[in-house]
């Protein structure tokens, strides 16, 4: 992993990207998107995830997040591990026309890594970028919310269900997110109240 994408300050807010190996379009199915949201909800309630912004696209996820316990790397590892196992199980057991092809892609990806078991769902990179200012936060949040618009899925960002864009418009959303204004970044880039 390059030095530029490592999470150095575990208590800082970060912009992150989780990518499915080989850009497999797993999240074109609601079942798999819902697994991710369930994981986010659980981590918000039980593991100290502060989720500020997110979008689930067909083969990747962008989010802005922090760890209440200053253990962001551990939190990301847990989210990716849990969602990978749960999604792979769903692919194997639920109706899925692309089952054989997807499972072969994930098995092939694992074979190229010596530390993997039988399947690899997520790439190892998180493309973590520390949020260092209010302006940068809102630039990244806008980028996240405009993903479905740029992809031609919706005309307005807040109309895409699997995004926090509607939360930002005070219209609620499928999952709650933190209001950025309630936490600020001090000069050491630590989350404060």
From TrEMBL:
Pfam families given in the database record: Y1_Tnp
GO biological process: DNA transposition
Sequence ranges assigned to domain Transposase IS200-like in this UniProt record: 9-147
Alphabetized GO MF terms: sequence-specific DNA binding; transposase activity
PANTHER family: REP-ASSOCIATED TYROSINE TRANSPOSASE (PTHR36966)
Protein name as catalogued: Transposase
Organism annotation: Emticicia aquatilis
